[in-house]
Amino acid sequence: MATRARDSAPATRRAGRRSSRSSSSRAVVPLGYDFQVFMKALLAAVLLVVPGSACVFGQDDAPRPFGSLVRSIGGDVTRLVTREPAIVLALGGGLAVLAKQQDAGSLRGMTRSHRLEEALDAGDVAGNGYTHAGAAFAVYVLGAATHSPKVENTGADLIEAQAVSGILTLGLKVAVRRTRPNGAHYSFPSGHSSAAFATADVLEQHFGWKAGVPAYIGAAYIGASRIADHQHYLSDVVFGSAIGIASARTLSFAHHGHQVRIAPAATAGGAALVISIIPLPLR
Length: 283
Known about the structure:
Layout: H1 4-7, H2 11-23, H3 33-49, H4 66-78, H5 83-100, H6 103-111, H7 114-119, H8 123-126, H9 129-145, H10 149-176, H11 191-207, H12 209-228, H13 234-255, E1 256-267, E2 270-281
Antiparallel strand pairs: 1-2
Helix pairs in contact: 3-5, 3-6, 3-13, 4-10, 5-13, 9-10, 9-11, 10-11, 10-13, 11-12, 11-13, 12-13
């Protein structure tokens, strides 16, 4: 379901950017306020929408034929308007509106350090939709070949999440046609971010935080790389992240009831509300 319109970056453009780095006399500077704003926005999105406990799907003991998997994608797309995915998208939209005020500042902050740009280069390939779709199919095939329903169903859910994420991301890209920082088109939302966060959320739901934390960190890394590479603005990345999580939540919503918990929490700057959306087994 990934397409070149999602987040493609021509090799010549990347080569040119690397060439300009080597000839530039810009100084390497430490991470500043703008990068902190970016990371806080992504962290806020994750804290607001991830569950308070791991969600393990109830179908791991039954194999899922590929035909039924394909047929279920349409239903997954329609579940984007159900409660939990809709809440995720609404929160992501609100955060994206707030992040838009930091688009220019975050772009400057992420692109003024050669060392930071080089450190984030791997995000271009790691977050590509083809990479995530290919990995999802590989997990599914591995599970089927080894007769492991757990692995097979993880792969199936990864495929479905990538399909839903790809459909919504591509549709918005074509509809919005926002110009990228580098002058190309299809900036909003970030397809790399939506693909990475869809994968991260499925892994967290299947395997808990031991898999979820590294996956979310990797997804945040990919989002940062898109800004450093002049491919996206901060608001593109924030809403792309919400799309990925919401896409994964269409799968959990199909098999579970949900409980919403709201609790106060102390922060360094004052106080905050922590919202947990917890999938519960159907009775």
